Amino acid sequence: EGFVVVVQPLKAFPESFLYATFFGGSSTDIVSSVAFDAQGKVYFAGTSMSEDLPVSDYAAYPYPLSYGDGFVAAIDPDKYSFDSFVYGSYFGGSDLDSVQSMALDAQNRIWVAGYTFSDDLPVSPGAYAGSRAGSVDAFIARLDPSRPGAAFVDYCTYFGGRSGDVPYAIAAHPTDGTATIAGYTSSPDLPFQNIQGAEAPPIRITEIFAARFDPAQTAQNQLVWSAILGGPGTDVATTVALDAAGNTFIAGYSNSSSLTGSDAGAKPAKTGAASGVFFLLSQ
């Protein structure tokens, strides 16, 4: 099962221990990401193999659609027992879907990113990509727990090329309504666009990718930019963050002997079998 723990690190144990709960059903449930809002509610998301995951009475997807679906949930740690459960819903299609990361925007809408083998995700009208392009595609969605039924999915699109594309991280822009995902790709045809002064490296094993989406646009215009970064080995992004100006900070790991990027890097070459990597993409 998944679990959620809330602590106050500036206090000594046991006063620092504020809340803890298991969350899951009768099979495997993995929490992969967590966030909290201004009222102290805790939101979390992940992947469930259970058919009996706790869900809300008005959940958009009260039942799993396949043997593995994404899920989103929220709890209020200031309440007790079952009263602390605020929201829960499955999310996915008829094949395996995994939520790898989530973020909240200023309206407490839940951005999620993950990978999918499904051909029937609830993509938005006019989405950037309405169907799966490769063996496994990335997806990005914005979910609104305050809206019941199909309106729960505020935005959803596929993103990928003809091979495999997996996002491990997502960050919501603080003001403009966009979100940025990052992960790895093995697709030679993944889009590389609107990155001035840079060229996409060849896809050798896996390369880091990052992409920004704007749901306010339609079709191909929803992809604000997409970058591919890496070297001759295995390169993977595991986290992404944005500053107030929209600059994108990407970190992960690599076993490449060299990387596409600035010559001003503090450590221009790896020293171990695999090293951490960091990129900054300016807005």
Distance between the termini: 40 Å
Low-confidence stretches: none
Instruction: Report the radius of gyration as a whole number of Å.
Output: 19 Å
Backbone shape: globular
By helix and strand content, what is the structural category?
Answer: mainly beta
Helix-strand pattern, N to C? Answer: EEEEEEEEEEEEEEEEE
Please state roughly what percent of the residues sit in beta strands, choosing from under 5%, 5-15%, 15-25%, 25-35%, 35-45% or over 45%.
35-45%
**What does the largest sheet look like?**
4 strands, antiparallel
Give average pLDDT, whole number.
90
Number of DSSP helical runs:
0
Helix content: under 10%
Give the beta-strand count.
17
Strand order, sheet with most strands: 3-4-5-6
Could you characterize the architecture of this molecule?
0% of the residues lie in helices and 43% in strands. It has no helices and 17 strands. It has a four-stranded antiparallel beta sheet, with no helix packed on it. The protein has a four-stranded antiparallel beta sheet with strand order 7-8-9-10, with no helix packed on it. A four-stranded antiparallel beta sheet has the order 11-12-13-14, with no helix packed on it. A hairpin with a 5-residue loop joins strand 7 and strand 8 (110-116). The mean pLDDT is 90.
Question: Can I get a quick summary?
Answer:
This protein has 283 residues and is mostly beta strands.
Which structural traits does this protein have?
mainly beta; 283 residues
Task: Outline the fold blueprint.
Layout: E1 2-7, E2 17-23, E3 29-36, E4 42-48, E5 69-75, E6 85-91, E7 97-104, E8 110-116, E9 137-143, E10 153-159, E11 165-172, E12 179-185, E13 207-213, E14 223-229, E15 235-242, E16 248-254, E17 275-281
Antiparallel strand pairs: 1-2, 3-4, 4-5, 5-6, 7-8, 8-9, 9-10, 11-12, 12-13, 13-14, 15-16, 16-17
